[in-house]
Amino acid sequence: PIAFIAAAVLSWTCMLKDVAVVCMLFLYLVLVAWLISDVYYIQSNITLFTMTEFHVWSLFTLTHSLQICNYLKLKGHKLGGIFKFRQPVLVLRDPEIIKAVIVKEFSSFQDNDFHSNINIDPLLGRNPFVLRGNIWKESRSKLTPAFTNMRLKPVFPVVQEVCSDLMEYLNESCKSGKECLVEAKELSTKFTADSVANCAYGLKQNSFKNPDSEFRKYGRIFLEPTIWKGIEQGCVILAPRLADFLRFKFTPTEVIEFFRRTIKETVDYRKNNNVVRNDYLQLLIQLQDKAQDANKSDDKSIPWYKKFTDEDIAAQALTFFLDGYETSSSALTVVLHNLACYPAEQKNLQEEVDSKIEENDGKLTFDALQTMSYLDMVLNESLRMHPAVPYMNRLCTKPFEVPLSDGKTLKVEVGTPVVTPILGIHHDPEYYPDSRKFIPERFTEENKATRPKYTHFPFGEGPRICLGMRFAQMQIKALVSTILSEYNIEKTENTRISDTYTDGLSICTI
């Protein structure tokens, strides 16, 4: 038995050695592919897994410092190369090349580099973010009307109701004195969970009185890290073929079932009781009715994306929730943190809010929000410092030649991932000196004119720009304006000016 074990160990050792040699040879050939192409290769020492922070979003975003550092290594180059395991990835730095990839030559880079198998993860697989080609185009054209200002304006009173719930919560918390301590992220997630559930589906949650409301509960299940979830989601992002083989999915099963059940019950109630609301879910119901009228036969050859079934409604409802809940709450937290750390800028914004409310007979209106230029600057600067996503990933869908500095061109082959490093560009000292400082005046019309256009894109850019951008901006602006109309926001001894915003803030009555 000992001899057998020794032989087995020797056999495995030899095999591992052979595998290592093959892997090294393969990586060498991949590196040579970049070198032959005259692409500047960024060497990076990245530890993907650490025991202190095992979380899928760490794999996806790494850290601010690391991303900015890698971006700055490209100084003097229009683009560069990195590796995602064995796959070469093109990283863009030049605004004109970025413009070509995400706008002018969009047809050559129209797909996002994110894979989700619709048969394994049926709701995420229908998300416009992961859809590709003509299926994405058709889905996008159906959903775009839900996010025009014409659609958003009637929803604004619902956002104001949630703002009133929040103010009631703050007033109750502060009634014992002139100030109260609140956790900014907690406050923001309660607000966005209620705002999205009410505006999109007509479901009132009141998370300020019920911290365990269902939408917040399942939002946490989706987003909070666990070791197994990190393995599954990390595999989906980094090794999609392996994820499909293992039937890993990005969306937890209980979240899928919750949205299927809740949205179906709500849709059935509306149809059975002739309830019509001017919200996102109503648009989805209308799309389903149109699809059913157009496809009255039971022809099985009709593709899934033309049928618009209950599964499609649940998928788009989940998409709206995830985009409006976590992305908006993170942005809102950053804004509140910046205002607490920069009292002079907070005072400037407060004066603008008070002035606009006074002009509108003591009311905060949808139209008034659209005219608050300093509020726009505050939001743009906050999202510059900490964009919702740190980079845009595209896949080359048609061969394309990128012009290089020396007059040569680089041929980008179909299937090559192309990355626009949003966070790095947002902190490039060439465009934003003292980039760590909060300076809203960077976004005056005069200052914006001094920078190339494609150096600020917190919601993405081009035909794939975030669909929910206007809704996100509306709910963030509404809440910030409502709070500042009655309270000051101050730092506490625990508040740090750092890359993360989970510390306490002090809300003080004016």
UniProtKB/TrEMBL annotation:
Keywords: Endoplasmic reticulum, Heme, Iron, Membrane, Metal-binding, Microsome, Monooxygenase, Oxidoreductase, Transmembrane, Transmembrane helix
A Pfam family that the UniProt record links to this protein: p450
Residues involved in heme binding: C466
Membrane topology: Peripheral membrane protein
Cofactor(s) required, per the database record: heme
Residues that span the membrane, as ranges: 19-42
A GO CC term assigned to this protein in UniProt: endoplasmic reticulum membrane
Keyword Transmembrane helix among UniProt keywords: yes
Molecular functions per Gene Ontology: heme binding; iron ion binding; monooxygenase activity; oxidoreductase activity, acting on paired donors, with incorporation or reduction of molecular oxygen
Primary location: endoplasmic reticulum
Domain of life per record: Eukaryota
Protein's cellular compartments: Endoplasmic reticulum membrane; Microsome membrane
Gene3D superfamilies tied to this protein: Cytochrome P450 (1.10.630.10)
Function: May be involved in the metabolism of insect hormones and in the breakdown of synthetic insecticides.
Family in the record: Belongs to the cytochrome P450 family.
PANTHER family (UniProt xref): CYTOCHROME P450, CYTOCHROME P450 28A5-RELATED
Protein name, UniProt field: Cytochrome P450
Species, as recorded: Diploptera punctata (Pacific beetle cockroach)
